[in-house]
Fold this protein.
Amino acid sequence: MTLLITGGASGIGAETARLAAQRGHKVAINYRSREARARKVVADIAANGGQAVALPADVSHEADISGLFDAAEQALGPISHLVNSAGIGTSPTRVEDFDAGVLARLFAVNTVGLMLCCREAARRMSTRRGGKGGVIVNVSSMAATIGGRPGASAYAASKAAVDSFTMGFAKEVAPEGIRAVSLRPGMIETEMTERTLADREVRAAIESTIAMGRVGQAQEIANAILWLLSDEASFISGVTLDASGGGFVFGKR
Ligand SMILES: NC(=O)c1ccc[n+]([C@@H]2O[C@H](COP(=O)([O-])OP(=O)(O)OC[C@H]3O[C@@H](n4cnc5c(N)ncnc54)[C@H](OP(=O)(O)O)[C@@H]3O)[C@@H](O)[C@H]2O)c1
C-alpha cells in the first residue's frame, strides 16, 4: 500500500501514518503549517526502517492538491490509498454570530478540499482511467449525527456533507476498483480538542455523554482506518463507520 494522508503531521493523521509505516506501507504525510511535526513523523518512521515523505499543501487550495499528489507519486510511486484527515473546527459560535468568511474557510478545508482530494485520487486510481483502483477513508465526525455540540452546528454540517458525498462518490467509483468510506470519530484526545478537554469539568461533562464513559485516543481511530484501508474490508464501501465509544447517551448514567 502507498498511502497519502492529508493533515498527517498531528493527531489522527499522524497516528495513522505511524501505524501504516509499522505495517510496512509507504506513507506520504501532508502538512499545511506543521512542517517540523511532519518531518519528525517521517524521521521516526525512517528510524524504524520505514519509508515516508513529508509534503506541504493546503487542501483548501485546488492547485496545491494536484501538486501534492504529483509530489507523492514522484517520491513513492502511484498512490493506492488515501486518508483525508485534514480538518479544522471553529470556536463555539451561535448561528446569529456567524461570519461568512469563517464559514467559507471551514467548508473550503473540511468539505471542498476533501472532495477535491477525492477527485484527484479518482483520476489516478480509477480503472476507467488506467489506474489500479484504490481505497479512500474520509475522516468525518460524530458531530454530523447530532448537529454538533453547542456552537458547532457549522462544523457538524461540514462533516455531514462529507458523509453524504462519500456515499455518492463510492457508488460512482465502485465499478472502477475504488472503495470509499467515511469514518466518524467521537471525541478524541488530539490537539484539536486539547483546550476543551483541559477543563476537567468540561471533560467530565463530555465523557458523561459517551456510552463508554471516556474520550478516545488517536491510535484507536488509526486502528479503524487501517482496517478500512485493508483487504479485510474488501466488500465495504459507501458507508459510514462510527468509532465513538458506543455513541452518545444523554441523561444520568
Ligand atoms: N479530535 C476529535 O475529537 C475529532 C472528532 C471527530 C473528527 N475529527 C476529525 O479528525 C480529523 C483530524 O483531526 P485531529 O483530531 O487529528 O486534529 P489535529 O491534530 O488538529 O489534525 C488536523 C490536521 O489537519 C491539518 N490541516 C488543517 N487545515 C489544513 C489544510 N487546509 N490543509 C492541509 N492540512 C490541514 C492540520 O495541520 P495545520 O494546522 O498545519 O493546518 C492538522 O495537522 C479532522 O478532520 C477532524 O475534524 C476529530
About this structure: The mean pLDDT is 97. The pocket of NAP is lined by residues 6-7, 9-13, 30-34, 58-60, 85-88, 109, 139, 141, 185, 187-188, 190-193 (CB under 6 Å). The chain is about 45% helix and 15% strand.
